[in-house]
Amino acid sequence: MVEIVLENVAKRFGPISVIEGLNLTMRDNEFTVLVGPSGCGKSTTLRMIAGLEDVSDGEIYINGKPVSHLEPKERDIAMVFQDYALYPHMNVARNMSFALRLAHYDRAEIARRIEQVADMLGIRELLGRKPRELSGGQRQRVAMGRALVRDASTFLFDEPLSNLDAKLRTQMRAELALMRQRIRKNMIYVTHDQIEAMTLGDRIIVMSKGKIMQAGTPEELFKRPANKFVAGFIGSPSMNFFDAELASNDGPLAVVGDGFSLGLPLDAAGRLKAHRGRPITIGIRPTAFQVVADGQSAENAIRAPVVVSEYIGSNSIVMSEIGHTQVTIDIGSDAPIAVGESVQVRVAPEAIYLFDPATERVL
Amino acid sequence: MPTTADQTTLHVPQGPALGDAPSRPRPHTGRRARRGKRLLNRSTPYLFLLPALAFMGVGLLYPVCRSVWLSFQDWKLGMAPESAVFSGWENYLSLLRDPNVYTSTGVTLTFAFTVVVLEVLLGVALALLLERPIRGMSLFRTVFILPMMVAPVVVGLIWRFMYSEQFGILNKIAKAVGIGGVPWLSSQEMALTSVIIADVWQWTPFIFILAMAALQSLPASAIEAARVDGANTWQTIWHVKLPLMMPVIIIATLLRLIDAFKVLEVIYIMTDGGPGLSTEILSLHIYKTAFVSQQLGRASALSNLLLLIVLALSVALFVFSKARERQARKVAM
Question: Which residues of A fall within a CB distance of 8 Å from B227?
Answer without folding.
Answer: 51-52, 71-73
